[in-house]
Amino acid sequence: MTPSSPGRTPSSAGTGGDGTAGTDGRGTAGARGPGPPPRPKFAAAARAALTDTRQRRNLRGATAVARGRAAAATAEPADWEALREAGRAIRDETLLGLDTHLEGLERAVTAAGGTVHWAPDAAEARRIVTALVRATGAAEVLKAGSLAVREIGAGDALARAGITLRETALADLVVQLGEDEPSHLLSPAAHRDRAEIRELFLRKMPGAPPDLPDDPEALAAAARAHLRGRFLSARVAITGANFLVAETGTVVVLESEGNGRMCLTLPDTLITVAGIEKVVPTWADLEVFLQLLPRSSSGDRMTPYVSSWTGVTPGDGPAEFHLVLLDNGRTQALADEIGRAALRCVRCSACLNVCPVYERTGGRAYGPVYPGPIGAILTPQMRGVESAADASLPYASTLCGACADVCPVKIDIPGVLVHLRGKVVESRRRRPVPTPELLMMRGLAWTMGDPRRYETALRRGTRWVRLMSRGGRIRRLPGLLGTWTEARDLPLPPSESFRGWWRRRNA
Amino acid sequence: MSAPGEAAAGPREEILRRVREAVGGPRAARPPVPRDYARRLTGSEAETRADVLALFTERVADQRAAVRHVSADELATAVAAALWGREAKQIVVPADLPFGWLAELDGVRALADTPAVDMGTLAAVDGAVTGCAVAVAQTGTVVLDGGRAQGRRALTLVPGYHLCVVQADQIVGTVPEAVGRLDPSRPLTWISGPSATHDIEMTRVEGVHGPCHLEVLVVED
Ligand code: SF4
Q: What is the ipTM of this complex?
């Protein structure tokens, strides 16, 4: 199989065109049709996800465990709040001086023997990565957990160039074999249970023993055996980065399985793809993030493996190191004074695990790459709110605020969501035909402006709405009001209003 | 068409221009980053040196790695005993591992690492013995920097078992202390317990791609 699958949504660049084959003129122009159908709005995707009870059960279990682990780990240090405050301030500092830090980073990486590449959009990043891999002549590339690599759609681009991108993290492998979308930042296969994984391995993994049991130990061992030989003979690997230290040119990766270490140590050529916001100014800043990130994400005091490297080291690790710095809409988010807070994110996934909406819908409803509350604020900023799908994301929340309470870099996610909703409304306001919400709000303002009008409307409305119910719940409101019920059921309104009851009681 | 290196000038300026435009013109001085977090251990955890060592031991054990305290005289015997316990026949060690550490190895062959040792050989041996650069009590972590007695990174990655010798004076209390002691220009590996995953139904499984077993010997004088 190839890593590209027909059902997969190609990620698209925030700026410029995308979805076309490589522009490097080697005759690989893909026979892609007019493009994929538009991604569904969050509510539609969520409705589909909500009917998948197996996924819901799996996710509920996974998020509950992750939530508990992180809660215990973050309660332990007495100085946790001070660390969060420092983390927030360092990330803000980084973003406001990002140009200087990026230049410093480039200087330091280059001085240490690495090469820095700049990719304004996904298409350019794909071109750079494909050209780098081609230059090595390798037919296979190993990949260790990188959201940025997925974001740019490197898998499809490499496949078109005849190169196989092979996932190495257990969960990513499960997602790749199952040809579906990751559902969680940290555990991309959180929606799959052991029986499903066993079945996938048997069907798709060459050499899986036919009597493979479905206990997690045996499944992990099967994955280990499957990838071992590949690691030992690997020539090229692609990784992401958790942090890029501007001052020293050091790249930092946190992981727990060891596949990251394999990828960044054993091949001859290492390509790291990272968003430009991954920078931290100084080496000393890591003392904060190496505490915040492990505890908030996996709930470990320290992630099992933290690797860092600066350029190349003769006799130890790859002889060639390339760092691809990716913009792809990040500067667009940076330009929004409120929204830019989303770029502080260190991808710990704590906000996913506490989110009641995410727990029920799963990550895939959020569209490409970034799921959960952080996806709901990051994706529309990086891609703009022109498409209905991206414009729907700021509404994928109940604004309960749980995410902001756990975020280790104190991103006010609900605040940004509200701000983005405002932007969506603003962008719709400019359209010649007023939106249903606008008309409805105007109507409401008129009705509620007068007590008599209000009461009459209430009585009539109640009677109408009760007529629409089925089994004591309302599943779909008619016409323009339908948007509200796309992903919600409404309880029935009581037959009598409070005002009515009060009047009767005092009569 | 173009080598990635050649194309770099245009896109670089483009990204930097967008950043400058996004962040805006002259930037006001910003308040310094508040760093009110603890740099050292506080309270009962750190009253004596012994408390710090005890914390390290407890935290390493929490991650399901084996950990033992030995005196300098006992080290060679303890190393040998650990390897015998695993029925190791052949191990690999950094070329500059102190000779004394392996003095009691009986029936276990130690291969000194050289550039000629290939990955197949590393995958076939029964384990690796190394020292470390720094260890962190608070998190139960050993950090290797490729310096003395540590070797290249593949040594502690490919074999299935890693025995790490920690000198008591290498143990610091906190992450900030460790970061302060380390040299970022070296390739660093922070190891906290064996390779692990929670990816199947959030059940912890040890030993995915990295070593399945980590054992730590703390040398006290
Ligand atoms: S927004 Fe905050 S909580 Fe969510 S993934 Fe990012 S850093 Fe973690």
A: 0.93
